[in-house]
Design goal:
about 270 residues, mainly alpha, 15 helices
Length: about 270
């Protein structure tokens, strides 16, 4: 009995090692654009582990690149039958139609993906990421917004929405969503400052300052502290003159009793 268990364990180790080698080689073929070679290995890997989304997605990607639409559709239909609630599968279905110039059919699949979106954070993120990978940013935004509405949580997806708005070039909405994310996750403040420093122009900083002013007006004393901190940081990033700094400190002091700590630092 012990020898049999050792034999089984050895065989499993060999299979695992073989799959790891195949996965590494398949990824290299994919990176090199050798889709004919990559598709064979990814199909083999997915057959061995048909719960592995990564292998399936790479297999579909190769079929798409090779324009093997019959194999592609057959694989997607089979997977949809196995996982009827996997909304993101319809994104690949839509991409297949779009690649063939069938725009209306593609739109139907994209709509179906959003309509069948389950009330689940992970599923929402997966579908939005699938749309983002296909450069369908408007549909990704719609996915997050629907997810936020279904889950009754307007802040959980704010960080991801902000990144999408950044890619779309919508600065005002990008800033709004990053600040929403800051409300929910104050520990992200340094990360968000780094993003603002990297992507906001001097003109964009004015938009940030205005949104912060508006939030400070309506926030509670405790809730306004992070906005005041961000506003002070925004002024210093802009390298403003001393007079606007003094006006800023006076304004925040008159509205909230929380800005004295910045007085000497800003002068």
């Amino acid at each position: 009995m012990r020898k049999m268990w050792l034999l089984v364990a050895t065989m499993l180790l060999c299979v695992g090692w073989s799959m790891a080698q195949d996965a590494k080689l398949a990824q290299q073929y994919l990176a090199d654009g050798e889709f004919e070679k990559a598709v064979v290995l990814f199909e083999k890997l997915y057959t061995q582990d048909n719960d592995n989304d990564y292998y399936f997605d790479r297999y579909i990607e190769c079929l798409m690149e090779l324009q093997r639409y019959e194999d592609l559709e057959r694989s997607l239909v089979k997977q949809i039958r196995r996982r009827p609630n996997e909304s993101r599968l319809y994104v690949n279905y839509g991409r297949m139609y779009e690649q063939q110039g069938k725009e209306e059919e593609a739109k139907k699949q994209y709509r179906k993906a959003i309509e069948q979106l389950p009330k689940d954070r992970y599923a929402v993120s997966k579908l939005a990421n699938a749309f983002s990978a296909a450069n369908k940013y408007d549909l990704a935004v719609e996915t997050y917004e629907k997810g936020a509405s279904m889950l009754n949580d307007r802040q959980f997806f704010s960080y991801s929405l902000a990144d999408l708005y950044r890619r779309k070039g919508d600065v005002a909405k990008m800033i709004e969503q990053y600040l929403n994310s800051l409300d929910a996750f104050p520990e992200r403040v340094d990360n968000i400052k780094s993003i603002f420093q990297r992507y906001l122009s001097a003109e964009d900083m004015n938009v940030l300052q205005q949104q912060l002013y508006d939030r400070i007006q309506t926030a509670s004393n405790s809730g306004s502290v992070q906005y005041i901190d961000m506003l002070a940081w925004a002024f210093c990033r802009e390298k403003i003159t001393r007079m606007p700094c003094v006006r800023y400190v006076h304004w925040t002091n008159s509205k909230k009793g929380t800005a004295f700590a910045y007085t000497n630092w800003l002068k």
